[in-house]
Design brief:
The chain is of the alpha/beta class. Helices cover 40% and strands 15% of the residues. The strands form two sheets. An eight-stranded parallel beta sheet has the order 3-4-5-6-7-8-9-10. A two-stranded antiparallel sheet has the order 1-2. α2 (54-63) links the parallel β4 (44-46) and β5 (72-77). α1 (27-40) runs parallel beside α10 (235-242). The longest helix is centred in the first third of the chain and has 14 residues, at 27-40.
């Protein structure tokens, strides 16, 4: 079993740098996926209330013999619950069969409804109560983050954003780093690797290191200092995605992958996304 690196968050807690994402997986699928992941060596699982699979995650966690303090579980507060975070967290804890969440994230700023600061204040309180170990956000741009900091004095520990070779978000990553906010990549493989896996540089590196294109891209995230949560429900891919700790990309190779950046956003724009 490979040993993966940990990221130290600004609040002193540590988080595995590689985790399993379960977006678009059913309750049934996540049970098998998490079982495979835990056997492979993963210790971090990323879900969300809106994924409608927290119950499956909870069943999988209840079935494991791995100690709770060795697991790192992330879930997220949905837009419609920003003014009632305590109740939403209680529901997530019930479904997940947990006493606390390791990382609780505001899923989107949804700026038009103007409730994300209220939600953040609630997360700070829930953190103080011990129901959440670390608090953070998803899909927050710099103005959203700055407002949280200005109005509460508390910075998120993590900002989970769309980030992959086609959209590398370098200014956002740099701003996060300057403010001691860890950057976590969702859709890290660009939703199946289209336009990434078939590029010359990824093919070249895959041949050089005798790895799959997905493994090269995951390694790029790790070597860039990012937390990464590739999603899969396929046992072979879950295992392959974890087989990335026996090599590193050098600076020149990272620079070549940097040239793939085209600013191609595959998901919603955080400034305008309001799904309620």
């Amino acid at each position: 079993m490979s040993t993966q690196p940990l990221i130290k968050l600004s609040d002193g807690n540590t988080m595995p740098q590689l985790g399993l994402g379960v977006w678009q997986a059913s309750n049934e699928q996540v049970i098998t996926a998490i079982e495979t992941a835990l056997e492979t060596g993963y210790r971090s699982i990323d879900t969300a209330a809106i994924y409608a699979n927290e119950e499956g995650v909870g069943k999988a966690l209840a079935n494991t013999s791995i100690a709770r303090d060795e697991l790192f579980i992330t879930t997220k507060l949905w837009n419609t619950d920003q003014d009632n975070a305590a109740k939403a967290l209680e529901e997530s804890l019930r479904k997940l069969r947990l006493d606390y969440i390791d990382l609780y994230l505001i899923h989107w700023p949804a700026p038009a409804q103007d409730k994300y600061v209220t939600a953040w204040k609630s997360l700070i309180e829930l953190n103080n109560q011990g129901l959440i170990k670390s608090i953070g956000v998803c899909n927050f741009n710099i103005p959203h983050l700055q407002r949280l900091i200005d109005e509460t004095g508390v910075s998120p520990t993590v900002n989970q954003i769309e980030l992959h070779p086609l959209m590398q978000q370098k200014p956002m990553h740099a701003w996060n780093a300057t403010h001691h906010i860890a950057t976590e990549s969702w859709s890290p493989l660009a939703q199946g690797g289209e336009g990434v896996f078939d590029t010359e540089i990824i093919h070249k590196l895959a041949r050089k290191y005798e790895k799959t294109p997905a493994q090269i891209v995951i390694r790029w995230h790790l070597d860039s200092g990012l937390i990464v949560i590739p999603k899969s429900v396929t046992p072979k891919r879950i295992q392959e995605n974890f087989g990335v700790f026996d090599f590193r990309l050098d600076k020149d190779e990272l620079s070549l992958i940097a040239k793939l950046d085209s600013g191609k956003r595959l998901g919603p724009d955080p400034d305008t996304f309001e799904r309620l």
